[in-house]
Structure formats: C-alpha cells, structure tokens
Amino acid sequence: MAPKNKTRERIIEASLELFNAQGERSVTTNHLAAHLGISPGNLYYHFRNKQAIIAELFAQYESRVDMFLRRPDGRALTVEDKTFYLEALLAAMWHYRFLHRDLEHLLETDPELAARYRDFARRCMASATSVYKGFVESGILDMNDEQVEALTFNSWIILTSWVRFLCSIRSNPGDLSEELMRRGIYQVLALESGHVSPAARPAVTALLQRLHVPLEQVLG
C-alpha cells in the first residue's frame, strides 16, 4: 500500500491532469478513483469531496503566482524581467488551465474558494501595478498612474478570460495548446505597445514577434 502522503500526491496530480484534459465538470470523484486504481473510499480518506481537491490545486496556483509576481529588490527592472514575467504567467496559466476554463462555475459552487479568489485577485492586481510602475521608473514604459491602473485591469481581464475565449471561439474547445495560450500573453504585451519608450522599443518589439501566434491558428 502506498504511503498516505504518496497517495494524496497521486490524487492531486491525476486530478490536475484530468481536469485540464476534460474540464472539471466532466470529472467525478469516481472517475478519479478509477483512473488511479483506488477505491472511492480511499480517495475520500484523503479528500472529503472534489471541492477539497480543487481548493488544493488553487492553493498551488496561488502560491506559484505569488512567488513570481513581485518586483525584485534593490535594482531597476529590465526588458529581460518583462520576458520573465510573461513566460512565468504563460507557464502557470497552462499548468492550471482548468481553473481559468471553469472559473465562474468553480466560484459559484464554492463560496470559500470565491472569497480566496477575490483576495488573490486584489493581491495580483496590486502586485502587477507595482511591477508596471517599476517599468515606468526604469524608463521602459512611459505612463501615468491612471494609465498604469487601466493597463493592470485590462491585463487581468485578458489573462483570466483567455482560456474561456479560446473554448468559445474554436471548433474543438478541448484542443488547447501552450502555443494558443501564448497568444493571450501576446495580447497583454500588445496593450503596452503604445507606451514603450524609444530606447526599449527594439527589445519589446522582438519579444512581441517571439510571442505572436497567427490569428487563423487561434480561431482554429
């Protein structure tokens, strides 16, 4: 018999895999138990219900974003930092894509998760505002505080709705890929394009070209 913590880890990993592949609403605890080759009772020993598994996965996602979405101490931000933030966001969104795909349903069915998500959203937007102001201070972006605030909110709206947009616009909603997610990151960077300083423009333009995914590929 696998140790308790090992079985728990397997449940978490399998849940993330199936939720991402099929959507959270399509996966039951019985599906999870059968996929793992364990009894439903064994699964319930570790997690009282599916919401508890989702809460654990959200905690992982929350912790991951909190770790990278912050300004570095003691130095100015660079265009390389912009690449780091965008790539980190892309990786987190892809790894936990079911959260974005089924977000409205998840929050409606779990008030505790909804409260945690609201706190997380406020924290992310405060951190993103600080990061954007860091890019202004370092001369990469030329924006005032009102423009930074609008950019932060617009970026959040794009990032949190991108997966659902892809599912609504594509003929095969389950056919998501990291490349399609990259176009969402491109859209966020494109919001800044009119505010990039002349000195930083070549590097930011190169980053835009690297992230670009043709629209016909997005529409599928």
Summarize, please.
The chain is mainly alpha-helical and 220 residues long. The protein is built from twelve helices and no strands.
Word description of this protein:
It is a single chain. The termini are far apart. The protein has two domains: 43 residues, Arc Repressor Mutant, subunit A, CATH 1.10.10; 169 residues, Tetracycline Repressor, domain 2 (Orthogonal Bundle), CATH 1.10.357. With 220 residues, the protein is mostly helical.
List keywords for this structure.
220 residues; mainly alpha; Arc Repressor Mutant, subunit A; Tetracycline Repressor, domain 2; 2 domains; 12 helices; 75% helix; HTH-type_TetR-like_transc_reg; HTH_TetR; DNA-binding transcription factor activity; TetR/AcrR family transcriptional regulator; DNA-binding
